[in-house]
Amino acid sequence: MSGGDATAPRGRYAGLTADERRLRRREQLRTAALDTIADAGISGLKVRALCARAGLNDRYFYESYPDTDHLLVDVVEDQLAQAMSEIMAAITTAPADTRLRTRAVIETGLAAIVDHPARRRMVTELQSLAELRTRRAELVTLLSGIMLDQGRELLGESATGMYAELAARTVVHGGLELLAEWVRGDLTITRPQLTDFLVAMILTASDITTTVEREVAG
Predict the structure, then answer these.
(1) 17 pairs with which residues across the strands?
(2) Whole-number Å distance between alpha carbons of 62 and 66
(3) φ, ψ for residue 4 (rounded to 5)?
(4) CB contact at 8 A, 213 and 116
(5) Cα separation of 209 and 94, whole Å?
């Protein structure tokens, strides 16, 4: 029988199915987006430039995303998930000592962002789109929850109730803003100095709760 290999799977090209090829092209676009963000920031995300960087025809962009905003949200969500995975791993493997554990988690969190060029740009530009502001709010809630879940080890015996939750959110909001300012170069402090301050801020968060409760009680 002639006309090719009768045993070759139908619908395959170069050993990949159509769905596998689409997934590969999608990943190429995500990689191109990360490289572009690292080089030029979020404003550099243009369909033609992304496709050229990914080595794809422009038409392939629209099989995965309706526009660059949707691609950006996809990339940000993926990078946040990866960073949070690294932070959670640090929590589970860090020393039992409160201060040492807090420092290990902060160092891991900083490394997950600062040592990754695209994430550095993202942390300074998370307010640029409504969808990204939503992701930032979700990140604050997630990190605040992690602080509260750590309970007494991080916030002391007062790690429950409305004021403890507000204290955790205050610390997270402040920490993210400080990090963004430092990444932009607006703060002339060293990485160890930033780490020291963030650790101290978390360890004294229980003081915020106690002070507020005392003031409210009058």
Answers:
(1) 12
(2) 6
(3) 115, 180
(4) no
(5) 25
Residue 23 identity (one-letter amino acid): L
Alpha helices in the chain (DSSP H): 18-40, 47-54, 68-93, 98-114, 117-125, 130-149, 152-155, 162-184, 191-203, 205-217
| 52: its two tokens | 């050229």
Token pair for 11: 């619908």
Global confidence as pTM: 0.81
In eight-state DSSP terms, residue 64 is: T
Nearest CA among 32, 35, 63, 58 for reference residue 47: 58
Ramachandran category for residue 213: left, alpha or beta (phi over 0 → left; psi -120 to 50 → alpha): alpha
Cα(149)–Cα(153) distance, integer angstroms: 9
Fill in the amino acid letter for 206: S
Q: Which two tokens stand for residue 112?
A: 């997950």
For 136-166, how does the pLDDT look when each residue is reduced to its tens digit (9 = 90+)? 899 999 998 888 877 655 545 556 678 888 8
51 & 150 share domain: no
Q: Of 5, 31, 65, which residue is a domain's last?
A: 65
Nearest Cα to Cα of residue 38 among 153, 122, 143? 122
128 lies in the same domain as 193: yes
Q: Residue 9 pLDDT more than 80?
A: no
Residues 22 and 81 occupy one common structural domain: no
Q: Which single residue is written with the structure tokens 């962002």?
A: 113
